[in-house]
Specification:
The complex is a heterodimer of chains A (238) and B (102). Chain A has 11 helices and 1 strand, in the order H-H-H-E-H-H-H-H-H-H-H-H. Chain A is mainly alpha-helical and 238 residues long. In chain A, helix 10 packs antiparallel against helix 11. The chains are: A mainly alpha (238), B mainly alpha (102). Chains A and B meet through helix 1, helix 2, helix 3, strand 1 and helix 4 of A and strand 1, helix 1, helix 2, helix 3 and helix 4 of B. Strand 1 of chain A pairs antiparallel with strand 1 of chain B.
Chain lengths: 238, 102
């Protein structure tokens, strides 16, 4: 772990605005994903206000799509919590990797900038820090851009959603599955990950068949995680 | 335990999700202040965060119709070739729509 001295952790309004502008182009895609989420959520039967509250407060696409899978008249609380935690556990690593710089901020700012940490703005911030440039403007400003467009997209999806009469015939019920699968395939790919995913898929299908409803997500996640522990990635410089 | 997803119950579900997600955003920073996250924990988290997505999608493929299965296949293939999520998702939806016209 490198010790981050000097002034890289400083950020001001100008840097936050610069971060906002830098991530605004990516945010077009975020708007589309948000619209897909809004549409899927309407199909699942969520109220408009609930959908907007979820996008604004949770701000984590994959876990929001996954929550729709568990949605019904009754939502299983424990399964929901474990599922959301497992999907969003990568945030733990984001916080940990940013820690050398975060620790130099006062606690209010330290936890404040992490409120809207997500994949794209975290990646940009880390890249900046690794090049010896300040990154928190990107994290905060970029996060604000992603958040705004995510909420805007959800709103668009809600209103566009009611105009579609037969979403299944248009393939729109597959938005969620295709989105989650694209996230998986877009991740790290090697033999180790392939084995981990296979174990996760097999465990999930077995649980789906033989265990109580909705347990397959948790079972698959834990089985995959355990496989990752057993077959360790070769140590690498980072 | 189940939560009623009607009326105020739905907002309670959203709040639970928001709190769990917040715990993941803050947890890594908080824990690092006391003990650095070990390599083993990092490996577990990385493996788990991909696996949970696989675990959600696998039954969709098993249970789905031909349109659903081909859609997932198209998404995976496009993602492997183009490495961009948006075209991959678009391809999947287009395939599902196409298959279901017949």
């Amino acid at each position: 772990m490198t010790d981050a001295d000097n002034e890289l952790h400083h950020f001001d309004r100008r840097m936050v605005w610069a971060g906002f502008r830098q991530l605004a182009p990516i945010s077009i895609f975020v708007t589309l994903f948000g619209a897909a989420f809004g549409l899927a959520a309407v199909q699942t039967g969520l109220d408009d206000s609930v959908i907007l509250a979820m996008s604004a407060l949770v701000f984590a696409g994959a876990s929001q799509f996954a929550a729709l899978e568990l949605w019904g008249p009754q939502v299983p609380l424990f399964t929901l919590m474990v599922t959301v935690f497992a999907i969003n556990a990568r945030h733990l690593l984001m916080g940990a990797t940013l820690y050398p710089w975060l620790r130099q901020l006062p606690p209010g700012r330290r936890y404040g900038v992490m409120l809207i940490a997500s994949d794209a703005n975290w990646a940009m911030a880390m890249q900046a820090f690794n090049r010896n440039r300040p990154g928190f403007g990107l994290l905060l400003g970029g996060g604000l851009a992603l958040w705004s467009f995510w909420v805007l997209g959800s709103w668009l999806g809600i209103h566009f959603g009611s105009a579609v009469s037969d979403p299944k015939r248009l393939g729109l019920d597959m938005v969620m599955g295709c989105f989650l699968l694209a996230m998986v395939v877009g991740g790290e790919k090697n033999l180790r990950m392939l084995v981990i995913w296979s174990v996760a898929a097999a465990a999930s299908l077995l649980a789906f068949r033989y265990l109580p409803e909705n347990s397959h997500v948790v079972v698959g996640a834990l089985a995959g995680g355990a496989t990752g522990l057993l077959w360790k990635e070769k140590a690498r410089e980072s | 335990m189940n939560l009623d997803a009607t009326g105020a119950g739905a907002l309670a579900v959203v709040l639970v999700m928001a709190l769990v997600t917040l715990a993941t955003r803050w947890g890594g920073v908080f824990v690092m202040a006391f003990v650095p996250i070990s390599d083993r924990v990092r490996q577990f988290i990385t493996a788990m965060s991909g696996s949970v997505l696989v675990a959600i999608v696998a039954p969709m493929a098993l249970q789905g119709d031909a349109g659903a299965r081909l859609a997932l296949l198209a998404t995976a293939a496009t993602m492997l070739v183009l490495k961009k999520p948006l075209p991959a998702i678009a391809a999947g939806i287009a395939v599902a729509a196409l298959v279901r016209q017949f």
